[in-house]
Amino acid sequence: MVKYKYVLAPGISEELVREISEIKEEPKWMLDLRLNSYHEFSKKETPDWGYPYLSKDLDFSSFTYFLAPDSSKSENWEDLPEEIKNTYEALKIPEVERKYLAGVVATYDSMPVISKIRSSLKDKGIIFTDIDTAIKEYPELVKKYFMKAIPPSDNKLAALHGAVWSGGTFLYVPPGVKVNLPLQSYFRINSSQSGQFEHTIIVADKGSELTYIEGCSAPHFTKGEKALHAGVVEVYVEDNAKVKFISVENWSKNVYNLTTKRAIVKSNAYMEWIEATLGSKVSMLYPASYMRGDNSYTININLTIAPPNTWKDTGAKVLMSGSNNRAKLLSKSISIGNGVSVYRSLINVSPNSYNSIIYSQCDSLLSSKESKAITIPHNEIRNDTTELHHEAYTGSISQEKLNYLMARGMNEEDAKSLLVLGFVEDILNNIPLEFSVEIARLLKMQMMSG
User: CB of 297 within 8 A of CB of 267?
Assistant: First the structure.
């Protein structure tokens, strides 16, 4: 059993917000931001769109908002307490970090436990550390970006996040520097009836390039117990920079995953979101690209799996205020059993955003008569120089193809899994091999459970 240094009482109040800030020894500007966020949270209503039972299911007074393991942050996995180290070894995070990654930051419940980066990257001026350390060592740099892309007033969950955030990652790549290996952060919720609110800031300065991978998980809790995940991701892609953001979220079916992700994209820049949403009871997640410069390109690739008794409300947002921009939105969802998959997109092109081209495609696969797929595209095109192409497909697993495979010796489960993997092959091809293999394995497990 993991030992905790701090476990604050359930519920949220101004006193709790102050206590979190005091424990973390934060500067006054961060305390002020937390208090402002708490007041925004108190004023806002729980969203009444999307998952229909959100306000009923989420009793914010029932969650524990801060749990700090009794462990100092380390650069070595071996220095972690045995219980925490075993968790990460089981997830194979140290093995992947040794083979494929340029650095890793790991957050366990509310606090960072590992922060590592290769010395060759440090020598290039790259900052990759947990955000608590970044606030202490690079205060002005963090202050410049913290909740500027996603202010507390944006939505109720962002306001909650601003009040009680803890843990997360800060990544800064200097002008012209190209990082050839991925950097990864891993977030673990280990306690039921708790919340995790990690904050991620990624800054790709002018002409720089990076790939960032985010992994998330939680154990299976006792029936009736819940956990809340309301992280915030802010990405700043400066002129001529390139960012590839990959997220593999394998939460347990007790987790409510309500994260806000947003990128500010400048001129001649490239922003790519790749989201694999595999677990959780409820997900509401719409990575957004705000195209504020000219001649930029954004890609949003979304793979969603809705197992039985889950609701996956995912999609993408693109808001263009610059000209000559390009956007591609590709979504594939699989509903298993009575699982519900919702694709929701927002494309907003301003009157002064000229000669932009947007392509949007959302495909849904149903595994049974009880499965549901809903598509809700929302397009606001406010000039006549924009090209918008939208395609959508909803279908079921082909009985003819299923019979064909079974007639050649495959059992029904393996045949269904093969057809589903063929359906998502183009998305898996965009994900690094070691992660696409893991996603394929998890997808097969979900198909068998359905």
Answer: no
